[in-house]
C-alpha cells in the first residue's frame, strides 16, 4: 500500500512538472514568435549596407502595414529597426525620434521580444551620444530579455557591444560578455553573429596583449587568423561587410606589434584586403585605418616616398567622393607633415601644414557641433525618460489606489452583510426597510462616483450614440412615406413607374443606411443622395416640378458635414409645398450651397414655389400624420451647438407682395 502511494506521488509530481514545462514552453514560444511584418522589416534592415535607400523604403512599408493592422508590437519592432538603420546613416535626429517612439510604445506591450527590441534601440542611441552608463543599462536589459526567448543571434551581438562599452575600465566584464557573445553565436549558427562575437573576443585578447601579456601573442594571432578565414569563407552570408574589414585591420595591426622581424607580406596583404572592402562599401573608418597603417609601416621602414604616395592616394580618393570627411583629410595631411619633416622637405611641410590647419579647424568645428548635438540629445532623452518613469509611477499608484478602494469596498460590503443578518433576526420588518434605504443610498453614491470618473472618451461615445439614435428616428419616417407611395402605384396598376420607383427607392435606402452609420459624409455624397431622392419624388409626382442644385464658387465639395440633415426639409417642401400645388402650375425647387469659411459653416438655402406655410398648415389640420422632421433635425442641431454655436435653421414665408409663393428654409450646417 505504501509503495502504491509513493508511486502515485511520483507520477503526480512528474505530471505537474511536465505541465509546468509545457506552460513555460508555450509562453516562451509565444514571445519568440516572429511576425510577417517583422520579417519584412528585418529584410529591409539587412539591405542597409548594399542599398540604404531601398532599406529605408522597405522598413517604412513594414511600419505602414503594422499601423494599418493597428499592431503596436510590430510598430515597436519596425521603429527599432529604423532607429538602428539611422545610426548606420549617422542621422542623429531621425535616430533619436525612432528610438524614443519605439521605447514609449513598448510600454503598452507585454511581449518580451518587443520590449527587448525597444531597449536595444535605446541602448544604441545612448551609446551613439556617448551616454555610456545609460547605454549599458538598456543593452543589459535587452540582453536579458532576448536571453529569455533564446534569441541567440541578437544576444551574440548585444553581448559583444556590451563588452566594448566596458572596455577598458573593466577587463573582467569585457572578457565575461565577449565569452558569452561567442557562446550565443555558436548556438545561433549565424555567420554574422559568429564574426561579431569573434571580433569582440579578439579585441579582448589584443587588449590583454597591450597590457603586457606578450607570451599569448601567438594564441591571439591564431584566433584572429581563424576569424579572418571564417569571414572569407562565409562572406556572402555576412551582411555587415564593415566587420570583415575590421577583421583584416585587427589582424594586420597584430602583425605590426608582433616579434621582429614582422611578417611584412601578411601585414600588407591584410591591409590591401581591408582597403578594397572600404572602397567597395564606402566604409570610412576602415579606409582610414588601412591607409594609415600602411603609411606608418612604410614611414617606420624609411620608405618615405611610398608612405607619401599612400597618404596622397588616400586624399585623392576622399576628395573624389560626393562628401568631405574633414577628420580623414586632417589625419592624412598630418601624416604627410611628419613624412616631410623626416625627409627634411620643409617647403612641402609648410604646404601640408597649411592644408592640415584648414581641415583640422573644420574637423574641430564638426566635432564641437557633434558634441553640442549629443548634449542636446542626451538632455532631451533624459527628459523623456523621466517623464516615462513618472507616468509608470502614476500608473502604479493608480492601480494601488484601485486595489485599496476595492479592499475598502469589500470590507464595507462584508460589514453591511453582517449588520443585515444581525438586525434581521431582531427586527425583520423595520430593519428590512432601513436596509433597503441604505442600499439605495449606497447605489446613489456609487452612481455619483461613476459619473465623476466618467472619461471624455465615454462622454464622446454617449453623444455619438445619441446622435445615431436621433438618426434612427428619421429612417422609419421616410420609409413609411416611400412604401405608401409604392403601394399606391401598385393599386393603380402603374407597373412600370412602380418598378422604377422601387429600384430608386432601394438605391436611396441603401445610401441612407450607409450614411446613417457614419459620423460625417462629404458634401458631394450628400448632394448625390439628394439628387437621387428628388428624382424619386419627381417620378412619383409625374414630373410635376423641376429642381436645381447650385454650389457657390467658394464651396469645396470634399468638406465633411453631418449626414441626412437636408433631406427632411426637401421632403417637407415636396410633400407640403409642391405636391398640393395645382397641376397646371409647374413647381420649382431650388437648393443653393454657400460657405462661411471663418465660422466653419455651410449654408444651405432651400426655396420652393409651393402653396406656402399658411396653406400647408390648413391642409395639415385634416391629416392624421404628423411630420417629425423639423423636431428631429432641431434636436440634432441642438446637440451640435456646443461645439458649433452657429448650427441651426429657420423657415420663412416667401414675399407674397411680389407675387411669390412658397417657403424658404435656411440651414446652418457645421463643417466637421
TrEMBL record:
Record carries keyword Kinase: yes
Keywords for this protein: Kinase, Membrane, Transferase, Transmembrane, Transmembrane helix
Pfam families per the UniProt record, alphabetical: His_kinase
Single GO MF annotation: kinase activity
Domain Signal transduction histidine kinase internal region: 467-544
InterPro entries assigned to the protein according to its UniProt record, in alphabetical order: Bact_2-comp_sensor_kinase, HATPase_C_sf, Sig_transdc_His_kin_internal, TPR-like_helical_dom_sf
Transmembrane segments: 403-424
Keyword Magnesium found: no
PANTHER family the record matches: SENSOR HISTIDINE KINASE YPDA
The protein, known as: Histidine kinase
Amino acid at each position: 500500500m505504501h509503495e502504491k502511494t509513493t508511486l502515485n506521488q511520483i507520477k503526480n509530481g512528474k505530471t505537474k512538472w511536465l505541465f509546468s514545462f509545457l506552460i513555460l514552453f508555450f509562453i516562451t514560444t509565444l514571445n519568440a514568435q516572429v511576425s510577417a511584418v517583422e520579417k519584412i522589416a528585418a529584410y529591409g534592415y539587412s539591405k542597409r549596407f548594399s542599398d540604404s535607400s531601398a532599406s529605408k523604403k522597405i522598413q517604412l512599408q513594414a511600419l505602414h502595414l503594422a499601423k494599418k493592422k493597428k499592431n503596436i508590437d510590430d510598430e515597436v519592432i519596425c521603429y527599432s529597426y529604423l532607429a538602428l538603420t539611422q545610426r548606420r546613416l549617422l542621422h542623429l535626429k531621425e535616430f533619436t525620434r525612432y528610438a524614443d517612439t519605439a521605447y514609449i510604445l513598448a510600454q503598452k506591450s507585454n511581449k518580451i521580444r518587443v520590449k527587448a527590441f525597444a531597449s536595444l534601440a535605446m541602448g544604441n542611441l545612448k551609446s551613439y551620444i556617448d551616454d555610456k552608463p545609460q547605454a549599458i543599462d538598456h543593452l543589459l536589459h535587452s540582453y536579458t530579455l532576448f536571453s529569455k526567448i533564446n534569441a541567440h543571434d541578437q544576444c551574440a551581438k548585444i553581448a559583444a557591444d556590451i563588452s566594448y562599452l566596458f572596455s577598458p575600465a573593466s577587463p573582467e566584464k569585457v572578457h565575461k560578455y565577449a565569452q558569452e557573445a561567442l557562446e550565443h553565436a555558436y548556438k545561433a549558427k549565424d555567420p554574422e553573429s559568429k564574426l561579431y562575437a569573434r571580433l569582440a573576443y579578439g579585441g579582448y585578447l589584443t587588449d590583454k596583449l597591450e597590457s603586457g601579456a606578450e607570451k599569448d601573442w601567438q594564441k591571439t594571432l591564431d584566433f584572429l587568423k581563424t576569424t579572418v578565414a571564417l569571414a572569407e569563407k562565409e562572406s556572402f552570408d555576412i551582411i555587415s561587410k564593415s566587420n570583415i574589414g575590421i577583421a583584416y585591420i585587427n589582424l594586420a595591426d597584430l602583425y605590426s606589434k608582433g616579434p621582429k622581424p614582422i611578417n611584412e607580406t601578411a601585414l600588407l596583404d591584410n591591409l590591401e584586403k581591408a582597403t578594397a572592402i572600404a572602397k567597395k562599401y564606402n566604409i570610412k573608418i576602415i579606409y582610414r585605418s588601412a591607409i594609415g597603417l600602411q603609411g606608418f609601416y612604410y614611414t617606420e621602414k624609411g620608405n618615405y616616398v611610398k608612405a607619401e604616395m599612400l597618404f596622397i592616394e588616400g586624399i585623392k580618393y576622399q576628395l573624389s567622393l560626393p562628401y568631405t570627411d574633414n577628420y580623414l583629410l586632417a589625419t592624412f595631411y598630418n601624416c604627410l607633415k611628419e613624412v616631410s619633416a623626416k625627409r627634411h622637405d620643409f617647403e612641402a611641410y609648410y604646404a601640408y601644414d597649411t592644408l592640415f590647419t584648414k581641415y583640422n579647424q573644420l574637423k574641430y568645428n564638426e566635432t564641437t557641433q557633434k558634441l553640442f548635438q549629443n548634449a542636446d540629445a542626451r538632455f532631451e532623452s533624459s527628459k523623456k525618460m523621466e517623464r516615462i518613469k513618472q507616468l509608470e509611477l502614476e500608473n502604479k499608484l493608480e492601480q494601488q489606489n484601485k486595489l485599496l478602494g476595492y479592499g475598502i469596498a469589500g470590507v464595507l460590503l462584508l460589514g453591511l452583510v453582517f449588520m443585515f443578518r444581525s438586525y434581521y433576526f431582531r427586527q425583520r420588518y423595520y430593519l428590512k426597510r432601513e436596509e433597503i434605504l441604505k442600499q439605495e443610498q449606497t447605489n446613489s453614491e456609487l452612481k455619483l462616483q461613476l459619473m465623476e470618473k466618467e472619461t471624455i472618451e465615454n462622454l464622446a461615445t454617449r453623444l455619438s450614440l445619441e446622435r445615431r439614435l436621433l438618426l434612427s428616428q428619421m429612417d422609419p419616417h421616410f420609409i413609411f412615406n416611400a412604401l405608401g407611395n409604392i403601394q399606391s402605384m401598385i393599386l393603380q396598376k402603374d407597373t412600370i413607374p412602380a418598378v422604377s420607383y422601387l429600384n430608386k427607392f432601394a438605391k436611396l435606402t441603401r445610401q441612407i443606411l450607409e450614411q446613417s452609420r457614419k459620423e460625417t459624409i462629404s458634401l458631394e455624397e450628400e448632394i448625390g443622395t439628394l439628387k437621387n431622392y428628388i428624382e424619386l419624388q419627381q417620378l412619383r409626382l409625374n414630373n410635376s416640378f423641376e429642381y436645381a442644385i447650385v454650389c457657390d464658387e467658394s464651396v469645396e465639395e470634399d468638406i465633411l458635414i453631418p449626414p441626412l440633415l437636408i433631406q427632411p426639409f426637401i421632403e417637407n417642401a415636396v410633400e407640403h409645398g409642391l405636391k398640393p400645388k395645382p397641376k397646371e402650375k409647374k413647381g420649382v425647387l431650388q437648393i443653393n450651397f454657400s460657405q462661411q469659411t471663418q465660422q466653419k459653416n455651410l449654408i444651405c438655402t432651400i426655396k420652393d414655389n409651393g402653396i406656402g406655410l399658411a396653406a400647408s398648415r390648413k391642409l395639415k389640420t385634416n391629416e392624421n400624420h404628423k411630420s417629425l422632421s423639423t423636431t428631429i433635425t432641431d434636436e440634432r442641431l441642438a446637440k451640435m451647438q456646443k461645439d458649433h454655436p452657429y448650427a441651426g435653421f429657420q423657415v420663412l414665408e416667401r414675399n407674397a407682395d411680389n407675387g411669390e409663393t412658397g417657403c424658404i428654409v435656411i440651414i446652418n450646417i457645421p463643417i466637421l
